[in-house]
Amino acid sequence: MYNLHLSPEQLQSRDTVREFVAQEIKPLALKAERLEPRARPLLVEALDKASQIGLRTLALPEEAGGAGADNLTCCIVTEELAVGDPDIAAVLAQTSTLAHALFDRLMTQEQCARFLPAFLAEQRYHLALAEHEPDRDTALGINYHRPQASDARFATAAVRAGDTWIINGRKDRVVGASLAALFAVRASVGEDGAGTLLVPRDTPGLGITRSETSWHHGACGALTFENCGVPAENLLTAPLFADAGRAIPLDQALNLGIGRAAYEAAFDYAQLRVQGGRPIIEHQAIGAKLAEIAIRLEVARAAIWQAAWASDHPDAFADRSLPDLPLTTIAAVFASEAIYRAVKDAAECFGAMGVMRDMPLQKYVHDARICLHAGAGNSEAKLRIAEALARYRRPAGAAALAAE
Amino acid sequence: MDFTLSNEQRAWQMTARKFAEEEIRPTSLERDEIDDPRETFDWEIIKKGSKLGFRTLAVPKEWGGHGTDFVTQALVMAELAKGDSAISKTFSQCWKWSHLIAAACSEEQKRRFLQPFLEDDTFLLGKGISEPSAGSDNRLPPDDPKAGLKLRAERHGDEWILNGEKCFIANASVGKLFFIDARTDPNAPLRQGTTMFLVPRDTPGLRIGKVFNKSGWRFYQNGEMIFENARVPHANVVGAVNGSDMKTHAAGDRTGGDLFGDLELAANALGVCDDACAMALAFARTKTQGGRPLFEQQLIQLKLNRMHLLTEALRAFVMRVAWEHDHKVRSANAGLCMNFSTDVIQEATEINLDLHAGAGVSDRRADKLVRDAIIWSHLAGDSVQRMKATRRLGK
């Protein structure tokens, strides 16, 4: 049963968000001061409006108070939002995905009772995941096809003291750090475990600094924990996300939105700009370039949607409808390279205006470059895919961390 | 085949290398990160470089310059660009047009303009071609008289009255003398109806508009020039009226190429590639993962291999084109080399950034080099520039 139809709900979500972005985000996002790569304050009011139409709780099940959207719908919405503003798209994707994981799967009823009402009530209540640590590289480059080195544990550690977990350590690249009300902090717990601690923003001992906007999307920041204590019941022991190779491809859906924004700008411009006596779209060189951009974006979307659909239908791996491969990682490598190239080509259609900081094209190039270098990069991703192809499995303890 | 440099060529290269390392590189990133595009410029570095000859080295010896050959010029541009691509370009922008003064200006014009240029360390040159509605049409002009630049010049006795607007003009906000292309016969196609004028900065009716805020090459000033009944004496016409494209003929290039300009971008790119390679190699040797240098990893070695092989291929091409220029060998090679340099500079700088980012390091200079390299897209490597080089092959 091969089926590429979107459901009426998915189509409606796409149209609604596309309209919202055109009305509420684009007019703000295209202002010259927002196009500066190194200092762009988050568009908080537009973010609030997006929350009001339910995008903050998009993935949260309906019975918990959300919209209960599936992963593919979340990717479609993230793409649409990123056409307008990747930072808003990143913050909302993060909050919505974490809300689903935390409130639906990981928290006990007692934990939900403590956190969910405030989350639902306050439109500015955002969630953030603190996982990456400075100076701790996953080092697959040296561990490819070898058991992981023994120091693979998180350096951030939680130690039990009575009814409290005392956390010490540092985290960086935390999306939404500058506004999140609750952090899910990955840490070493006890002697040899790993877990997730729920740390409210106002917890004493938690320090938050904003990262430079030029290297990350989504109001990123760094966290420091200095004897930061949270109640014992704030520990979640179940794995946060099962398998990174089959995760929801939201990062690339966001990237696809950047690519589309660049494509749409170039397409419009190519119809308006006249050189050589005709609109430049009527010249072969520009026509073929626009075609190449469209090809890259369409094929990237196919890979991203397949990975998103697969994350909604894990049984499709079991019944051999899908190959037993890390489809999300595969989509990420292909899409990030294809979209960066597409966005550069789109900028080239603008001539010198493609590099002006008060024009959007240079920002799209910059934004796509951030996606190209996100995480540990595509070389590492290719090694992960290669290990999956060879069915390489690490010894149990190391494998759990390698999958994160 | 002999790639040995003469003592004089070697001396210029070493002087440029030292200046780039000691004076340009330390200020490069700081200048790049200034947000106001007018403030990125630094006269001190221009004066220091000028005293070493980097502003005037292309002027022939009989006119008081250094009379360097194209090989030397390529070497110096590359060395300066290792320190900062945009600062190198600011200097070589003066060579580009001092070539033109030497080749195309009358003796009287040389006396009036070349002498002050040689004497003043802050005398920079520029040339105005691009206009808001005419970019590619100036590079590959169609026959339609309506296409191409529109700045109008009308003769009134001994003066020409200029009206119109130029944009993206190099050194607009800092230059003292500009070569301005203007339409003197609006009913003729671009090349038959355009005249080049020498326009000093203090010409009545000329004002400088905004300085463009680019994502790369931030030191390099590209600005608007607005002509409102600007009055230029007839004595400032370069060559013949309606004969703007004589510049390439006068320079001896009958293939329609921009003899110096194409080499300039390729040689500048070479310097940036050298910088990217050196950065990447040093990083791979010193940065460790799991206690071992990155350099030991196969994928890192393959990336270093790719950027070095591209850079060395570009070096061979650049030096060949410079040598061909010196020996008056005419071909499409300068254009092809410029096109090629776009591909090489962008791939090499992207690999360098990827190496750093992949190891978790946000290196600001690696990011700067990528932003500088993007400039090549519209200057040297867009489809128009590629077709232009191809059409030389077809002639």
What does this structure look like?
- The complex is a heterodimer of chains A (404) and B (395).
- Chain A is of the alpha+beta class and 404 residues long.
- Chain A contains 13 helices and ten strands.
- In chain A, the strands form two sheets. In chain A, strands 1, 2, 3, 4, 5, 6, 7 and 8 form an eight-stranded mixed sheet that branches. In chain A, strands 9-10 form a two-stranded antiparallel sheet.
- In chain A, strand 4 (180-189) and strand 5 (193-200) form a beta hairpin.
- In chain A, helix 3 (71-84) packs across helix 7, helix 7 (250-272) packs parallel to helix 10 (327-348) and helix 10 (327-348) packs antiparallel against helix 11 (360-372).
- The two termini of chain A are 32 Å apart.
- With 395 residues, chain B is α+β, with helices and mostly antiparallel strands.
- Chain B has three domains: 7-119, Orthogonal Bundle (Butyryl-Coa Dehydrogenase, subunit A, domain 1), CATH 1.10.540.10; 125-244, Butyryl-CoA Dehydrogenase, subunit A, domain 2, CATH 2.40.110.10; 259-394, Butyryl-CoA Dehydrogenase, subunit A, domain 3.
- Chain B contains twelve helices and ten strands.
- Chain B has helices at 7-32, 43-51, 70-83, 85-104, 107-119, 136-139, 246-250, 259-286, 298-326, 333-358, 364-379, 383-394, and strands at 125-128, 152-156, 159-170, 177-183, 194-200, 206-211, 222-233, 237-238, 288-289, 292-293.
- In chain B, strands 1-4-5-8 form a four-stranded mixed sheet, covered by helices on one side. In chain B, strands 2-3-7-6 form a four-stranded antiparallel sheet, with no helix packed on it.
- Chain B is globular and about 80 Å long.
- Classes of the chains: A alpha+beta (404), B alpha+beta (395).
- Chains A and B meet through helix 6, strand 9, helix 8, helix 10 and helix 11 of A and helix 9, helix 10, helix 11 and helix 12 of B.
